[in-house]
Design a protein that fits this description.
This protein has eight helices and 13 strands. The chain folds into two domains: 94 residues, 2-Layer Sandwich (Nucleotidyltransferase, domain 5), CATH 3.30.420; 119 residues, Nucleotidyltransferase, domain 5 (2-Layer Sandwich), CATH 3.30.420.40. By secondary structure, the chain is of the alpha/beta class. The structure holds adenosine-5'-triphosphate and magnesium ion.
Length: 270
């Protein structure tokens, strides 16, 4: 059996793929070797697996370069993070081609056309930005708390809309389109309004960048993966993603640890 491990900027995920089923653990640790060893150890402990049954460990993510040739005695195969993102996203979404956007600490964008996988862009606006701004502006360091606050927020006291400056639509831009995130922040904006505005800004930046990349790469479908997919789900739930509907944004099951799954699947083909 093959274990996939993604040592990311914030979390380390380890998965085992078995007969189409996934077993997964996620841990947080600063040292990449400790994170990988801890995740592998926890995975085998938690699911009652004998370490000797693990043929290979497919390692990916920024921290994987710190690993040597073996982890707890098991052979390591290193998988490029962009390959793991592309394979993970498309296989979970059941697609041969798609733009895959990894929403992690930062945001990486990969275009997949069958076997051809290209890193086409990304942005430093991501989960790290979400938590950084949330701590700095609101003193909140939990995403659950941030979302609970945001569900009671109102963007009209924070964001400048096209309609605010033009009195209506401008060409094909509806009046409700954001002209400037935080561009109209008022003295009476509440912490709840700011929580929503932070989430909204990050979702809009990533959404608009994804659409531009999809257009440039000729991709119809956009697959979102990574742990920050939850804020896209949140914005869909409170129906603030109107500008993105009509284009194929897909968040597959197991999106949170898609990169670790992609690493395992890539190693299985080697
Ligand atoms: N348990 C958690 N610990 C830390 N961050 C979390 C956790 N759960 C969700 N997050 C959020 O998810 C983000 C990290 O997402 P994810 O784990 O997909 O990325 P990563 O793989 O660590 O980073 P990258 O892919 O950019 O190297 C954090 O920035 C934070 O906003
Ligand atoms: Mg990641």
């Amino acid at each position: 059996m093959i274990v996939g491990i993604d040592i990311g900027g914030s979390t380390t995920d380890a998965v085992i793929l078995e007969d189409g089923e996934f077993h997964v653990v996620t841990i947080e640790a600063n040292d990449p070797v400790a994170a990988a060893a801890g995740a592998l150890g926890k995975l085998v402990e938690q699911y009652g697996i004998d370490l000797n049954q693990v043929e290979r460990v497919a390692a990916t993510g920024a921290g994987s370069r710190a690993l040597g040739e073996r982890l707890l005695g098991r052979q390591i195969v290193k998988v490029s993070e962009f390959t793991a993102i592309g394979v993970g996203g498309t296989s979970l979404a059941g697609k041969q081609r798609a733009l895959v956007v990894s929403l992690g600490t930062g945001t990486a964008i990969v275009s997949v056309n069958g076997e051809k996988i290209d890193h086409t862009g990304g942005t430093g606006v991501g989960g790290g930005t979400l938590l950084g701004l949330s701590k700095h502006i609101l003193g909140v360091s939990s995403i659950d708390t941030l979302e609970a606050m945001a569900s009671r927020g109102d963007l009209r006291r924070v964001d400048l809309k096209v309609g605010d400056i033009a009195g209506g639509p401008i060409g094909d831009l509806p009046a409700g389109t954001t002209a400037a995130n935080f561009g109209k922040i008022r003295a009476d904006a509440t912490p709840e309004d700011k929580a929503l505005a932070i989430i909204n800004m990050i979702v809009e930046v990533i959404g608009v960048l994804s659409l531009a990349n999809a257009r440039a790469c000729g991709q119809e479908d956009i697959v979102l993966t990574g742990k920050i997919t939850r804020i896209f789900r949140f914005m869909q739930k409170i129906r603030r993603l109107e500008f993105m509907f009509g284009r194929g944004f897909v968040i597959p099951d197991h999106a949170d640890y898609a990169t670790a799954i992609g690493a395992a699947r890539t190693a299985a083909r080697m």
